[in-house]
């Protein structure tokens, strides 16, 4: 017989690093999961929502200047400095008893139209305050066979991600560079200008901005 029971799991994020083998920029977070009942957990189908909470860190004057386009003037930040959605990722946790630590792969964007990347690219140093929220289903051994539990929506974990770790993940794929989305006709005109003057993309944009190619 299978019954649905509330979850007794607790979560903590214990570490972070650039994910070295990802096809694109990605972080790897260490997620520790504890079940204090002593039962055998067969598996957890977990969904992890990763948010940035900018209210949990101070920002330098230079950072604040870069963030006015995202949050407005600092005088308004008590109203506008809201959490930003970084990613939502599925994690399949295999069997364990007591506690286990699993990697959580978090893909990153380099698109300057994405709010979370605009925020991250404005930071010089320090940490990025992350909040991990959880949902999902666990399957564990009970007196009547396999039992089913729901991961509580109230469970969350905080993690201070060093800015250097985020930057390392980005530089592993796009060192010293970034991406800007352009309309197709604008891109066609830029490509034609680049070809006409035998320039790289970077040199073509620099030339159009009034600098030497």
UniProtKB/TrEMBL annotation:
InterPro entries: DUF6084 (IPR045730). It comes from the Bacteria. This is DUF6084 family protein. It comes from Pseudonocardia nematodicida.
């Amino acid at each position: 017989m299978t019954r649905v029971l509330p979850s007794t799991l607790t979560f903590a994020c214990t570490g972070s690093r650039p994910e070295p083998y990802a096809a694109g920029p990605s972080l790897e977070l260490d997620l520790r999961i504890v079940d204090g009942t002593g039962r055998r957990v067969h598996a957890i189908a977990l969904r992890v929502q990763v948010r940035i909470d900018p209210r949990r860190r101070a920002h330098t004057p230079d950072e604040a200047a870069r963030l006015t386009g995202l949050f407005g003037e600092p005088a308004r930040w008590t109203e506008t400095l809201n959490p930003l959605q970084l990613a939502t990722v599925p994690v399949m946790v295999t069997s364990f008893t007591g506690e286990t630590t699993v990697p959580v792969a978090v893909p990153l964007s380099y698109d300057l139209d994405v709010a979370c990347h605009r925020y991250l690219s404005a930071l010089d140093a320090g940490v990025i305050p992350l909040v991990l929220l959880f949902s999902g289903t666990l399957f564990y051994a009970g007196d009547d066979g396999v039992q089913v539990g729901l991961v509580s929506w109230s469970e969350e974990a905080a993690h201070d991600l060093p800015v250097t770790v985020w930057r390392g993940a980005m530089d592993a794929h796009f060192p010293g560079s970034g991406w800007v989305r352009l309309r197709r006709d604008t891109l066609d005109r830029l490509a034609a200008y680049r070809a006409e003057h035998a320039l790289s993309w970077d040199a073509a944009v620099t030339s159009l901005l009034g600098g030497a190619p």
